[in-house]
Specification:
Keywords: Hydrolase. InterPro entries: 4-hydroxybenzoyl-CoA_TE, HotDog_dom_sf, YbgC/YbaW. This is Thioesterase. 22% of the residues lie in helices and 36% in strands. It is built from 3 helices and 5 strands; from the N terminus they run βααββββα. The termini are close together. The chain has a 5-stranded antiparallel sheet. Strand 3 and strand 4 form a beta hairpin. It is of the alpha+beta class and 143 residues long.
């Protein structure tokens, strides 16, 4: 597996379910968040910058739900950086069912980096471009 992609495993529990016995749509946001934090933990070049008073702030999220996840399903959340631009970046996620390999959901999250002291967006140039550029994965080349 490409070291630029992190894997987080999640077991579906009862509190994740809605009245129909499926994972509630809002809980997928938590699964994706777990994936992003695992990604930051695995990439010190990202974590070091965030530790210096910069926050990763979600500005857009798109989720494509493909298959219902139910109680006791084991899910794999794959997370990678798919694009960085001048002021924003995109994180890609794939959630698959571990047993069957079926795609459960795919998501893209657009984010900005925010200086927590000034409240201003931090441009993704200079040191940030050097940190994040090598982490970008071309998902069109993925399976």
């Amino acid at each position: 597996m490409d070291s630029r992609i992190t894997i987080t495993e999640v077991r579906v529990r009862g509190f994740h379910l809605d009245g129909y016995g499926h994972v509630n749509h809002a809980r997928y946001l938590e699964f994706l968040e777990e994936g992003r934090w695992a990604y930051v933990d695995a990439h010190p070049e990202f974590a070091d910058g965030l530790a210096r008073g910069v926050a990763l702030v979600a500005v857009n999220l798109n989720i494509d739900y493909r298959r219902a996840a139910v109680m006791n399903d084991d899910l794999k959340v794959e997370t990678c950086l798919t694009r960085i631009g001048g002021r924003s970046g995109v994180v890609g996620h794939r959630i698959t069912h571990i047993g069957s390999g079926e795609l459960v959901a795919a998501a893209t999250l657009t984010f900005v980096l925010l200086d927590q002291q000034s409240g201003q967006v931090v441009p993704m140039e200079g040191a940030w471009a050097e940190r994040l550029g090598p982490l970008v994965v071309d998902v069109s080349e993925e399976k």
